Amino acid sequence: MNQAPMHDGQLAVTVDVVRALIAEQFPHWSHEYVAALSTSGTVNAIFRVGERLAARFPLVVDDADAARRELEIEAAAARELASATNVPTPVVAAIGEPGHDYPGPWSLSTWLNGTPVTPDSLADSTEFALEIAAFILELRATPVAGRVFSGRGRGGDLRAHDDWVRICLDNSAGLLDVDALARAWATFRELPRHSPDVMSHTDLIPANLLEGHGRLVGVLDVGGFGPADPALDLVVAWHVFDEVPRRELRRALGSDDVEWARGAAWAFVQAMGLVWYYRQSNVTMSALGRSTLERIMASGIAERI
């Protein structure tokens, strides 16, 4: 459970507020039970609504109109991804309006059953790694249709993250071996890229993967589906798997040395921000960052490029 707010301006969302908003705006669902979920998520407060729905409330709302546009974009992305894969993924059932002291839009999505993966739970599963590879290949087969990386977040030019990595290194003194990490980044940031964008999930972290009896039964947080560096979805190799499954995932995807190293670089960028930023407010995410960096550094991939 979070020990402190994760973000400046973070909103507190209660079950009573969720019930009231559903009763007012979607009365046909007002008979469903509502329960707050304890998750490692950093963007939304999530509530179970009956057996078939989940409500997602952004934790920070600076501009309600912009937030609604973002939810509409995410809903369209979720629909497109659902049509691209055989793996169950959520789709948006409705978008709600502000009210009852909650200042922004919110959404109701279909519920998926399954157990969220952790950095260790399936670390040695080659079978799971191959299922993840098949999922990534399905996404890559989706037509980009002239779209390119939006320029937001990860998935474009690694060097665009220089300032962020420097901030992370400065804030990680005493937590991590920042000298070794700085040397790794100096190599990662120079990795060339020649391949065009492909359609990508863009955030394949453990908590977004659902398993049942060791099999991939669902993928969450699909609103970021869009064009990006083909290496971006390879972050999953370092967030989830140890050496042998990681090698099999690479073989199934056919990644060359540079693409594989870029995947490690994107995982590095993400992990560097998790350890220190969430150290007190989200220990699960902080631990994910640490375990991912440990896998990357133990592999020696930055030295072999």
Descriptive account of the structure:
With 305 residues, the protein is of the alpha+beta class. 41% of the residues lie in helices and 14% in strands. The chain has ten helices and ten strands. The chain has a five-stranded antiparallel beta sheet, sandwiched between helices. The chain has a three-stranded antiparallel beta sheet with strand order 6-8-9, covered by helices on one side. It is globular, with a radius of gyration of 19 Å.
Features:
single chain; 305 residues; alpha+beta; five-stranded antiparallel β-sheet; 10 helices; 41% helix; globular
Topology:
Layout: H1 15-25, E1 34-36, E2 44-49, E3 53-58, H2 64-82, E4 92-96, E5 106-110, E6 115-116, H3 126-140, H4 162-171, H5 178-188, E7 198-200, E8 209-212, E9 215-219, E10 226-228, H6 235-240, H7 243-253, H8 257-277, H9 283-299, H10 301-304
Antiparallel strand pairs: 1-2, 2-3, 3-5, 4-5, 6-8, 7-10, 8-9
Total count of helical runs of at least 4 residues: 10
Shape: globular
Rg from C-alpha positions?
19 Å
What characterizes the major β-sheet?
5 strands, antiparallel
Share of β-strand residues: 5-15%
Listing every helix as H and every strand as E from the N terminus to the C terminus, the arrangement reads HEEEHEEEHHHEEEEHHHHH
Helix content: 40-55%
Q: Look at the structure and give the mean pLDDT.
A: 95
Spatially, the strands of the biggest sheet line up as 1-2-3-5-4
Task: Give the tally of β-strands.
Answer: 10
Structural class: alpha+beta
Parts with pLDDT < 50 across at least 5 consecutive residues: none
Report, as a whole number of angstroms, the end-to-end distance: 39 Å
